[in-house]
Amino acid sequence: MLNNRNLHDLIDVNILKNIQDRLAEITGLAYNIVNFKGIPINEYSNFSSFCKKIRSTHEGLRICCDANAHAGLEAALRKKPYIFRCPAGLVDVAIPIIVNDTYLGAIFFGQVRTNNDNLSSINNSNYYLKKHKNCSEFIDDYNNILYLDYYKIESIAYLVQIIVNQLVEKTYLKSIEEELNFNNIKLMKEKEYRIKLEEELKVARLTLLQSKINPYFLFNALNSISRLALIEDSPKTYEMIVLLAEFSRYTSKHIGSKVILEEDIENIILYLKIQSIRFKDRIKYEININDNIKKLKIPSMVLQCFIENAVIHGLCPKKEGGTIKIKGEILEKVATITINDDGVGISKDKLFLILNGSDRIKNNNVGMSIYNVNEILTRCYGKNYRVEIESEINVGTMIKLKFPFT
User: Fold this and answer.
1) Distance, CA of 72 to CA of 104 (rounded, Å)
2) Cα–Cα distance for residue pair 142/183, rounded to 1 Å
3) Bridge partners (DSSP) listed for residue 258
4) What CA–CA distance (Å, rounded) separates 90 from 135?
5) Relative orientation angle of helices 365-381 and 302-309, to the nearest 10 degrees
6) Range 212-404 has CATH code 3.30.565.10
7) Are 291 and 230 within 8 A, CB to CB?
8) CATH ID of 2-182, from 1.10.10, 3.30.450, 3.40.50, 3.30.1380
C-alpha cells in the first residue's frame, strides 16, 4: 500500500516545514526537503545568497535538483546520511526518508565549507566558481559562506537522522494502523453483506419450504363447507366459512416470515375449531402456553403442520377420535413446544423415513410436510433444533419443537 504513495501522502508537509525551520534556526544552516526526484516540496529555509543566485537561473536550478536526486538516492542506498560536495563546491548532507523500505525523498542541509577535502563530489565540483571567477559579487557571496568543522557536520547529520527516523517510525505505524482500520472496515462491511445475504437466503428458503407445506386441509375444509351448504341452512356453515376465511387470511399473510407464538396459537385454534365442526365432537384440544414465551417469534406454519398431521393422520382414523395437547414452556433456557395426541401412532420404520426425508415418502404429504418443517428449523436455528418425534402404535405421538430463547 505504501509503495504507491508519495511523501506528501505519508508525512504532513506542515510538520516537515516546522522541523526544517527549527533545525535551520538552531544550527544556522540551510535546509530543504526534496522528493525522490530531487525536486523541492516546500520553501527553502536559511538559504545562502550564493545558492539563491545559482538557483535563480534555469540551468542552475536543474543542476542543483539533479545533484540532490543523485545524493538522495546515494543516501537511500547507504541507509544513512550522505555527506558530499555539490557542483558549486559547497558541502551538503542528504538524510534519506525511507518508509517500509521505500525511498520517498530526503532532507538536505549544509551549504557550508569545511576542512575535509576528501569528500565525494557530484558532477564538476567548483563548476560555478570557475564559471564566475571574474564576478566579484559572486566571489564575495562564496567567501561569506559559513565555515564548519567536518565533525560538527557529522554530528548534526546524525542528529537530523534520529529526528527523521522517529518521524518515519510514527508515520509508518500510523500508515499500518490506517491500513488495518481500512481492512477492518472492509471486512466488517463484507461480513455485514454476507450476513444480509445469508438472512435473505434463509427467508427465500423458508418461503420455498413453507410453500410446500401440505395444502390438503384447505381443500378438505372447502369440500366440507360445500357439502354442508347443500344439505342444510345451518349457522355452522356460516361459522365454518368465517373461521376458514380468518385462517386463510393469516396463512397467506405470513408465508415466508416469522410470527409471534401467541398469534400462531390463535390461528391454530381457528384450525382446531374448523376441524371440531367438521368431525363434530371427535376432535378435542387443550392448550397451555407459558406467558414468558408467548411473544417469541417463530417461523409461521411450523406448528400448524404437526397439528394438521395429528388431526388427519392421528385422531381421525380412530372411531372415537381423540385429544391434542399443546404445551409451551422453557426447558434449560430453550423455548419448547410439545404436541401430544392419543391417536393411532406412527411405526418406527415410517418415522425414520419421514425424519430423514427418504425418497420412499417424497410423494407422501405427511412425510414431506414434516421433513420440510425440519429443514426450516435447522436452517433457521441449527442442527440442535431438529424436530423430536416419539410415537407408539395405538398409543399416540409426541412432537417436541425447540426454539432459541433469550
Assistant:
1) 9
2) 55
3) 299
4) 18
5) 150
6) yes
7) no
8) 3.30.450
The number of residues making up the chain comes to 406
What beta strand segments (E) does 86-192 contain? 91-99, 102-112, 120-121
Q: How far is CA 322 from CA 20, 307, 358, 369, in A?
A: 95, 13, 29, 22
Of the candidates 320, 360, 372, the one whose C-alpha atom is nearest the C-alpha of residue 344 is 320
The type of residue at 92 is D
| Closest-CA residue to 65 (of 113, 32, 101, 103) | 32
Record the cell numbers describing residue 374, joined without a space: 425440519
Q: Residue for cell digits 417424497?
A: 362
Residues of the chain within CATH 3.30.565.10 domain(s) are: 212-404
- In the chain, which stretches have pLDDT less than 50? 1-4, 213, 359-360
Measured CA to CA, the distance from residue 114 to residue 15 in angstroms comes to 30
Rounded distance between C-alpha atoms, residue 218 and residue 113, angstroms:
104
CA 219 – CA 237 distance, rounded (Å): 16
Task: Write phi, then psi, for 119 (nearest 5 degrees).
Answer: -75, 150
Res 9: pLDDT? 65
DSSP letters, 218-270, are: HHHHHHHHHHHHHH---HHHHHHHHHHHHHHHHHHHHTTSEEEHHHHHHHHHH
According to the model, what pLDDT value does residue 236 have?
A: 72
On whether the CB atoms of residues 192 and 351 are closer than 8 A, the answer is no
Count each helix (H run) and each strand (E run) in the chain, helices first: 13, 12
Domain with CATH 3.30.450 in the chain: 2-182
Q: What is the pTM of this model?
A: 0.46
Phi-psi region of 111 (alpha: psi -120 to 50; beta: other; left: phi over 0): left
Distance set, CA 152 to CA 75, 83, 86, 92, 125 (Å):
19, 12, 18, 13, 22
Assigned C-alpha cell, 286 = 387443550
| SS3 label, residue 146 | coil
